[in-house]
Design goal:
There is one protein chain. The chain has 9 helices and 10 strands. The chain has helices at about 55-60, 85-95, 110-120, 130-140, 155-165, 185-200, 215-220, 235-240, 245-255, and strands at about 5-20, 25-40, 45-50, 70-75, 80, 95-100, 175, 205-210, 220-225, 230-235. The strands form 2 sheets. A 6-stranded mixed β-sheet has the order 6-7-8-3-9-10, with helices on both faces. A 4-stranded antiparallel β-sheet has the order 2-1-4-5. It is globular, with a radius of gyration of 19 Å. The two termini are about 35 Å apart. The relative contact order is 0.17.
């Protein structure tokens, strides 16, 4: 387990669903079924599958926003599901989220400097000015941009700001949940390349959640395929795309359109 930053063992999550007011009996919906997944340090692992397969639920369990019924999630060898409040607070400094929609994930009433400073204040970090200037430069924006509001930026620039906010605490692990699906294709390519650059510069580990297999193929070291709450295949990217083993993986790959990203 030494080389794994995140290690998930036999994770299960069930939701109870009430069909209607006249049918009060609640039916159990198994969203995650015995999930096992190991993510090595400094790797980009993509999680793919159709809508409703459990990708976001798994991400929320890793982020400790949802509590599973059973299983274990290890971060640097420690089970996060056993963390107390203090340990959870420290864990959340090391694991951050890049959200799907850059138009709704930034507070429109806050200047960019305030947005980036907020997590630093919460975690009582020192040298806040220095850290803000460093991270805004790393995502390809200028110090002058810190004085502006989100509405003054394009969608791609807003996503760069969202990435800066996720990275300002210098986390070890990033969950990127469909981070480019709301962007134009040309802008999408620049954001993907930025993530690759940041992975190298900051030694980041990234869980990239997407339904776009072209992006996944370009970006990932490994790919996990989810279907109906289960990981049905997990392997190196080249191997998965050239020689898929599972029938569902073959079905997903049959729908790929070739798009040049680099």
């Amino acid at each position: 387990m030494d080389n794994f930053l995140i290690s998930i063992k036999d994770l299960n999550k069930t939701y109870s669903e009430q069909k209607s007011f006249l049918a009060p009996k609640k039916e159990a919906q198994h969203v995650l079924k015995g999930i096992n997944l190991d993510i090595e340090k400094a790797q980009i692992v993509s999680l793919v599958g159709e809508s409703g397969c459990g990708k976001s639920t798994l991400a929320n369990c890793i982020l400790k926003l949802i509590t599973p019924e059973s299983g274990k999630i290890y971060f640097e060898g420690k089970n996060i599901l056993e963390f107390n409040k203090k340990e959870t607070f420290e864990y959340r400094k090391n694991i951050q989220m890049i959200f799907q929609n850059p138009y709704s994930s930034l507070n429109p009433k806050m200047k960019i400097k305030e947005i980036l400073q907020e997590p630093l204040i919460i975690h009582k970090e020192d040298k806040q000015e220095e850290k803000i200037k460093e991270i805004i430069s790393l995502v390809g924006l200028s110090e002058d941009d810190l004085k502006k509001y989100p509405h003054e930026f394009s969608g791609g620039q807003r996503q760069r700001i969202a990435i800066a906010r996720a990275l300002v605490l210098k986390p070890k692990f990033i969950v990127a949940d469909e981070p480019v699906s709301a962007l134009d294709v040309s802008i999408c390519a620049s954001i993907i390349n930025l993530l690759l650059e940041l992975r190298e510069k900051l030694n980041l580990t990234i869980l990239f959640i997407s339904h776009d297999l072209n992006l996944v193929r370009y970006l990932s070291d490994k790919v996990a395929v989810m279907n109906k709450g289960e990981i049905v295949e997990f392997s190196n990217t080249d191997e998965l795309f050239s020689n898929p083993k599972d029938e569902y993986t073959k079905y997903l790959l049959s729908s790929i359109r070739e798009i040049k990203i680099g």
